[in-house]
Design a protein that fits this description.
182 residues, Immunoglobulin-like, 5-stranded antiparallel beta sheet, 2 domains
Length: 182
């Protein structure tokens, strides 16, 4: 083999190696993107139900069932949501609580039903679909609970943010902002 034919043969290897490397990188990227896409599709069954509208009310005086300082969030349209998939987050200016492990068997919350370090929620009065073993939260049905205003957690003029959360997806189903009045 002459020197010039040897050099031509070596130069021909360079483009082939480059093409193989580019194809390898392309296949690796395609596999990575495909894996991520398939993983995302696998989690799509955790979709958040849609609650088209919701309304809220804060009753400072006596109300049916719970008495004074009752928060009610009413489902006004959209998907039906099983009560055991609901959580309720409550935020006041300087305090917060979360009702979990719903529904409760009666109308009182147990220790495992609250994440309430600020003592925002009154333990002995919940109502609607999260009480008495629960029913699906559908249009026309409500969630209600009583705030612990006796502990000084709610003052007139305070803003009360209530979010109803779909626990499996951690998506917000309803968000209402209420104002405490005298």
């Amino acid at each position: 083999m002459s020197r010039s034919s040897y050099n031509r043969a070596r130069r021909g290897v360079s483009p082939v190696v480059g093409v193989v490397l580019v194809l390898s990188i392309t296949v690796l990227l395609a596999a990575t993107v495909g894996g991520v896409a398939l993983h995302a599709v696998g989690e799509s069954d955790r979709r958040t139900p849609v609650v088209a509208r919701s309304t809220g009310q804060f009753v400072t005086g006596p109300s049916s069932g719970c008495g004074a300082n009752t928060v009610t969030v009413r489902h006004a349209g959209g998907d039906s949501v099983p009560a055991d998939e609901l959580e309720v987050a409550v935020a006041l200016p300087d305090a917060a609580a979360r009702l979990v492990d719903l529904p409760v068997p009666g109308t009182a919350l147990a220790a495992n039903n609250t994440d309430d370090p600020d003592n925002v929620v009154y333990d002995y009065c919940v109502g609607g679909v999260i009480a008495d073993g629960g029913q699906p939260w559908t249009a026309g049905r409500a969630i209600s609970f009583q705030l612990n205003a006796g502990g000084g957690t709610v003052e007139p003029g305070d803003t009360i943010d209530v979010r109803v959360v779909h626990a499996p997806s951690n998506g917000v189903l309803a968000a209402v902002e209420l104002t405490a009045r005298r």
